[in-house]
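thread: overnight batch results

M.L. [08:02]
morning all. the overnight job finished for the chain we discussed friday. pasting input first so we're all looking at the same thing
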Amino acid sequence: MHWWPVHRSDSSEVLAGQDLKAKGTWLGFNRSGRFAFLTNIRPGYIGVEGARSRGEIPLLFLNSNESIQKIAQALKENRDQYAGFNLIVGEPGALFWMSSNSPDLQPIEPGVHALSNDALDTPWPKVTLARQQISEQGVLLETQLNGSGLLMDPNLANDAELPDTGIPADWERLLSSQLIISETYGTRSRCLFRLSGGQYDVVDQQLDKTGAVVSEQPFSWFVGE
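M.L. [08:03]
and the structure it wrote out:
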């Protein structure tokens, strides 16, 4: 994750990882306080697979001074150009969710929420666990952004609890843990961020194939700085 220049007249920057092939991102922030992130959707969606990179979507919001609502309306009208996605987008005082399957921008109410590869707060085992973890660590996260154990549980769900998203059962089982570990596919990063009193604190961690943290980058700035 780095600060990348944005091709606008005001010399803005976006803090994000970057897909070196399509130049998009799945999580990013700008200095004015807006952030956006994506997950894909595993249950089938009729969008054209690969017509346009989903990594463009966060940048639609981060690279623009238009309102979130206006950009979201344009995205709704063009969503079939992308494979299935969930989008969380926010700025100080406002937080929203929309997806390929629920394309109307929806405000997220205050509270503890979690998102995986289906609709917001769909009770997959790892989503339910994440909400529990955040509830237990919420006060701690207000003072120190380390999130010990948060989203790092490697335990697989019981077969009876697995969702049916149309993929083979062995993959459904592998993907059921928060921390995915295998020889061919797995979790390689974790990002924690907090917005409080106009200040952003972001911690970007890189993981090895065993799930161990091998590098960590902290970032802090004030909105509008």
